[in-house]
Amino acid sequence: MRKIVILCVFITLFSNLSFAADSKPAYQMVVPFQDYEIVNVNRNSYITQTGDWETRRYSLYSMNGECILQDEQEIRFAYRNPSIVMVKRSSGWGVYSERGECLVPCRYTVVSVNGDHCMALKEGVYLRPGAWYGDRVLYSLNTKKIIKDIGYGDEFYFGELYETDPPGFKSLFDGSSTVVYNGENQMILQIPCENSEEVSLRNSGRYASFVTLHMEKDDIYYLYSNRGRLISQGEHSLWALPNEQYFVESGEPGRQVRTFDGDIVIPFGTFDVILGNNGVRPRSDICADNYTFIVSKNGKYGIMRLPEYREKCSPWAKNAVDAAVETYNIVPADLRGMWEEKCNREEFCRMLSQTVRVITGKTLPELAADKAAAEFIDCDDRDVSAAAALGIVAGTGSRQFSPSAFITREQAAVMLQRTCLFLQIENEGQPISFSDEFQISPWAKEAVSYVSAVTVGNNGKLMQGVGNGRFDPQGHYTVEQSIATFVNLINY
């Protein structure tokens, strides 16, 4: 009998999972297909719609099927706090928790939620999108009380309470090519073309982490990260999910979901529709918690969840990455999975600090505790300040460090040389002669020679070339390249 029970439990647990071959990520159906339409979803609950356009009503359900709010005029997840719902009744708009607790009574013309606050408008008059005129009050959703009477006005925003979205991409046509810049105004792509209409650009996701380019001439779509790395290309429209682990191909066959490594998790034809949610508009293309999606098949609706997944590093870097993560713990959590992306100056310093910790037992801030802190007007990171105080890094001028700028190979060489001198690591080997030595900036020549002479491991070098005898001084250092160098430094 016990064996039968265990078998039944095993079957029940795994009956809603769909597995791909070779241990690829598997999606899970967390809400089975049902007849009523699901229009919005977050990680813990979802909103359904019944009736036609004239008679439509909305209900809120938990993922286990419990009805929390039923037959309301309208229900929306709050834009920046999807655990909160905005509810419309005949008496007006109000705010509820996703467990059904009333936080703001339904008596206002319009409400807007940001974090733990709600701005509510009494007897408001609509002026234009985003602007109303009326008497405004500010609620605390924690105390469920009005904490500020803002008064009459025609602006319906949170001011300093409101957190703006990060800037997106932009492109410029310079007469012979389309140049693409990311939100930091760094050039990430330059695409030769005959006119500005050959290349169309759009942000791929609300968080501006990716960009999709469409080459009209070849009718090919390209998906790039905001650091200029090509993720995929093909004949179908491509857009990345904000979890930064999956992307979607969308075309006449429907939609297909793939990992950034290229593995197909949901093939074309699995579902008729795959929809996400950004907490405001039903059926938008971004999911509230980045992993949960509305799916439909043959007129029925369900909810599917993707597993968390981390992109693999390049094969050549696997040993170094494994050692850096599992043995030395020098890679911050937010960089794990970004192996092939360009590394910026602040990220390099953060990993450098942890590398020094492995070698000396202390991080850079601990070693610089008795020194005057270096201050930059554009960066307050403790590792950067400590590295500057110890003479390992310098700014880019005018008291700026440019933390988000991609680090170049010659900049990395200078930081590594200064680190070696600080740690009293000798360059006892023979420096490498590079064919593009004439391209190395004068201030970096000594450092490049130094780091290419430091012998590590089995006659390897602390920093080597990129092939064909080149050092590529102005080229950018990727996260995994930086990690390999730091592991070399540890193994000196």
Provide a quick synopsis of the model:
This protein has 492 residues and is an alpha+beta fold.
Secondary-structure class = alpha+beta
Q: Could you tell me the radius of gyration in angstroms?
A: 27 Å
DSSP summary: helix tally: 8
Q: In what range is the share of β-strand residues?
A: 25-35%
- Relative helix content: 10-25%
- Detail the poorly predicted runs: 1-22, 158-166, 277-288
Sheet with most strands: strand arrangement: 1-2-28-27-26
Summarize the biggest pleated sheet: 5 strands, antiparallel
**Form type:** globular
Q: What is the terminal-to-terminal distance? A: 61 Å
Number of strands: 30
Mean pLDDT: 83
Write a structural description.
The protein is α+β, with helices and mostly antiparallel strands. 17% of the residues lie in helices and 35% in strands. The protein has eight helices and 30 strands. The protein has helices at 2-14, 318-327, 345-360, 364-367, 382-389, 409-423, 445-451, 479-490; strands at 17-18, 27-34, 37-41, 45-50, 57-62, 67-72, 74-78, 81-89, 92-97, 102-108, 110-114, 117-128, 131-140, 145-153, 170-173, 177-181, 187-192, 199-203, 210-215, 220-225, 230-234, 237-240, 246-251, 254-259, 264-266, 273-275, 292-297, 300-305, 455-456, 460-461. A five-stranded antiparallel β-sheet has the order 1-2-28-27-26, with no helix packed on it. The protein has a four-stranded antiparallel β-sheet with strand order 3-4-5-6, with no helix packed on it. The chain has a four-stranded antiparallel β-sheet with strand order 7-8-9-10, with no helix packed on it. The longest helix is centred in the last third of the chain and has 16 residues, at 345-360. It is globular and about 80 Å long. The chain starts with a helix and ends with a helix.
